[in-house]
Amino acid sequence: MYKVLGAAFLSGLICIALTPWFIKLLQRRSYGQVIREDGPHAHFVKKGTPTMGGLLIVLGTVVAYLLLSARTPEGLVVIGAMVACASLGFADDFIQIRKERSLGLKPSVKFLGQLVIAVGFTCFATQFSYGSHPALPAKFSFLGVFGPGLGWLFFIWVFLMITASSNAVNLTDGLDGLATGSMILVMAAYLLIAFTMFRHPITQHPKFYDFTGQPALDIAIICGAVLGACVGFLWWNASPARIFMGDTGSLALGGVMAAIAIMTRTQLLLFIIGGLFVIEAMSVIIQVGVFKLTKGKRVFRMAPIHHHFELGGWSEFTVMIRLWIICGFCVLAGFAIYYVDFVSRVPK
Q1: Where are the domains of the chain?
Q2: What SS3 string covers 12-74?
Q3: Largest distance between two CA atoms of the chain
Q4: 3-class DSSP state for residue 188?
Q5: Exposure string (b/e) for 291-314, b if CB count within 10 Å is 16 or more?
Q6: What is the reported pTM?
Q7: Using one digit for the tens of pLDDT, what is the confidence trace for 199-255?
Q8: What is d(CA 179, CA 320) in angstroms, rounded to the nearest whole number?
């Protein structure tokens, strides 16, 4: 456990210590946030706030992981997914800044990039493993794998998970500290899940989870590193934010969240633990769908849903805290389901 805690401490320290220097660097280069013109008027004052702070979250996570882990194939492929998603987000941020508009990469280009990441992740994860531990099976999972092998359809499933997760976190990152604080709660749950799998290997009892051993510890270290990095970043990202994570951070966090769920064989459980991100993404899907079907009608004042509450008169801070509470309930519900299942596997 000391490695997990050490990773959290080290990544958090990196983010807290380097962010002031990074803010000054971004200000000198005029790398500031571009605000969407149809957004809430209260957000216009945020124009020009340094962005791309997600680079520090990724840096803190990668450094902590490389220094404290065993660098198993399972851990490296998850870190690789995070770095790849961050690179895609960086390109998106850079285009927004250069062209001074709130739209960066074309959706088709972004989806193509996410497809390449998903294919690469799936190829490595299903082919390589640590020691005698099995590689990632090409199957659905909830609290362990189930159903028949998906074959090449598993590539599509992984693509959908990585794309949905990264875009959902990107949509949630619309208020100071909202996505960062929510990710801390989600990573705390997955840290406990991965560490429990490590401490209770299938060699102790045939009903325990088949993802275990050093790979599970490596994933727990990654969760701890991401958690610590988000805590360190939140110090500067809390309202009023002095820096934003940008698409660099939101795509990276969404990508690593999906990769962790896939690797721990808890793919469908992610939809419960990450329930807030699901709500945010669904609000956009519903808004766009109804708008097109009814030729102009809207369900929400504005989507994602956090803007709906802002336009309803809630302060940004109130919206953030209440959505954190919702995220906490989702995390507790998801972890409770996992814990009940784990207790049922413990030998009598």
Answers
A1: 2-266
A2: HHHHHHHHHHHHHHHHHCCCECCCCCCCCHHHHHHCCCECCCHHHHHHHHHHHHHHHCCCCHH
A3: 63
A4: helix
A5: eeeeeeeeebebbbbbbbbbeeee
A6: 0.92
A7: 888 777 778 888 888 999 999 999 999 999 999 999 998 888 888 898 999 999 999
A8: 9
